Amino acid sequence: MVATSPWVRPRTLAQGLILALAAGLITLLALGLSARAPKAIVGNPAPEFELELFDGGVVRLSALRGNVVVINFWASWCGPCRDEAPILVDAWHAYRDRGVVFIGIDYVDTEPEAHAFMQEFAVDYPNGPDKGQRIARQYQITGVPETFFIDRQGRVAAHYPLPLTRHLLISNIELLLTA
Amino acid sequence: MRVQSLGRRAALGGVLLVLIGGLGWASTAAAQEDDLEQQAIQIEESLNCPLCEGFTLHECPLLICDQMRAVIRQKLAAGASREEIVASFVALYGEEVVNAPLLGEGFNWSAWLLPFLALAGGAAWLAYVLRDWHRRRGAIAELESVSARPPEEYIRRAEEELGEID
Fold first, then answer.
1. Residues A150 and A46: beta-carbon distance below 8 Å
2. Is B121 on the interface with A (CB under 8 A)?
3. Is the ipTM of this complex over 0.85?
4. Which residue has the higher pLDDT, B152 or B30?
5. Nearest to A18 among B90, B95, B125 (CB)
6. Largest Cα–Cα distance in chain A?
């Protein structure tokens, strides 16, 4: 009969600790990678968010269910956003009484320049800063401008990671209004 | 005549006083400006560009970083502290904008410390293995040297016997 020592050998203990540490690191790495893996946005329910607006109000996406929602990510430092802004403002004025809501999300920007941009292009649809880049992460945007079209059921119907043309904007809105 | 001279002297003295006061005020203002600039640079160096990787806010050439640097200077001039400015940037751009761990953020600290802990653990393990290996090698070498050399008594007797044969 072999007597077993109640003490664990230091070498075994050290190896166990190293293995546990390595396992922990691999788990953290796997968690990080799975969190970064892109998930399909189009065709799925639009990620819910609450946006604090520049004018002090708050917009919650789920509260807009039943409307067609156009979510536009922009920034004052973004050149193509300047080309797109008048098109968005015109379309907002044309469709705001027909069950279409526009939301502007200001991505990685500074407030004075954001205000100047909105004033320059007379942007009057709900707009607010993406605090902590939380909404940008939810929608997995890769830059600005990017636009998402949300149908009346709250699903992402289309996503354009590029500046919109008037035709592209109107055709997507019309498609969702007649659906 | 004498009154005129006194008046002239008083006027000259007044001008000199104004000049000295103005110089003093200008140098104080310049020193304050320098101090604010130094503070602004320190804040910029402690923050990352929110769009590129590997660039601090101080060195990034993007337009947004120009805008952010201007905001830092505006806030400092308005009397905001470094902590207030950093907190407002974290709220707007996320924790990634800070290039050092935030105090009080448990996960952040663990994320920063874990690699160093792993490194220290690995180094300790390597040191233990090397020490163990060295100790064993030493023991084996000692054993070999002991077994390779015949005992003194045996050598003496062998030499005696060889002498007898001769």
1. yes
2. yes
3. no
4. B152
5. B125
6. 91
